[in-house]
Design goal:
Layout: E1 9-11, E2 22-23, H1 26-35, E3 43-47, E4 53-62, E5 65-75, E6 83-87, H2 92-104, E7 107-114, H3 125-139, E8 146-147, E9 151-152, H4 153-158, E10 164-169, H5 179-183, E11 189-194, H6 202-209, E12 214-217, H7 226-240
Parallel strand pairs: 1-3, 6-7, 6-11, 7-8, 7-9, 10-11, 10-12
Antiparallel strand pairs: 2-5, 3-4, 4-5
Helix pairs in contact: 2-3, 2-7
Length: 245
């Protein structure tokens, strides 16, 4: 069932059940009362990543508080997305964009990976989590992707579960069409690894290519920025062997 985009959607942490009121956070109160100027009885959609999506109505218990009163469930809770998205950190603004797009494109797990040529830093995991939540609110996503702490590439590979196929975007791949490499992976659990602006080092590429659970794919004849590559790779994966297929 597709999301209702006519109504404002908000993420809450409380359980959702008919008639059980939930108090808005201070940020939600400011947004609804002062930005949206929402009135008593305004309808809104709530989700918490566990109980599906609910239609709720606003009420004002006091001048400085807003409460949500769930009325009925509008969409059941879906199973978590199975695609894992692993990325080398970028500069903050572009990394915000990349995180938001990965949620929109169906990532179920998101994790920063530190490579030899990485240029960005992860100084604030709360910022990444906020971007994930905001993207889910805006795009009708009900299953919030899991966010894991950063990990070194070599440690990631050492700990890898071999029943999950790792796809990495390899700018050194001789072909230009990723579809042929992907078509044989239908039905497998998948993860996507996108490297930094400077690309993977030769040592990292050799290490990845030597693993039996790794598949290298190209992304066409043009050189793509890392954030563009991430969206392009997720799109071709979802269209070829993912949930678009």
């Amino acid at each position: 069932m597709r999301a209702n985009y006519r109504l404002q959607r908000l993420f809450v942490t409380d359980p959702l059940d008919a008639g059980v009121a939930i108090e808005a956070t201070s940020d939600q109160f400011h947004y609804l009362a002062h930005v949206m100027r929402a009135e008593e009885g305004t309808e809104i959609l709530l989700f918490n990543g566990r109980d599906g999506e609910w239609l709720a109505k606003l009420c004002y218990p006091s001048r400085k508080k807003i409460a949500f009163r769930p009325v009925e469930q509008t969409r059941p809770q879906p199973a978590p997305a199975t695609l894992h998205y692993l990325f080398a950190p970028l500069k903050v603004g572009r990394m915000d964009y990349m995180i938001q797009k990965s949620v929109e494109m169906g990532a179920g797990l998101i994790r920063p990976v530190m490579t030899q040529h990485v240029q960005g830093r992860i100084n604030n995991m709360d910022r990444l989590a906020a971007n994930i939540t905001e993207a889910a609110e805006q795009c009708g996503v009900l299953a919030i992707p899991e966010l894991l702490e950063p990990i070194r590439l070599y440690d990631l590979i050492d700990q890898w579960a071999p029943d999950r196929r790792l796809i990495f975007c390899d700018e050194g791949e001789e072909s230009q069409n990723p579809v042929a490499a992907l078509q044989g992976l239908s039905g497998e659990k998948l993860a996507l690894l996108v490297g930094p602006e400077g690309g993977f080092s030769a040592e990292e590429r050799d290490m990845l290519r030597a693993k039996p659970f790794v598949t290298a794919i190209p992304l066409g004849p043009r050189i793509l920025r890392a954030d563009t590559a991430a969206v392009a790779a997720m799109a071709v994966i979802q269209a070829t062997i993912g949930d678009w297929h």
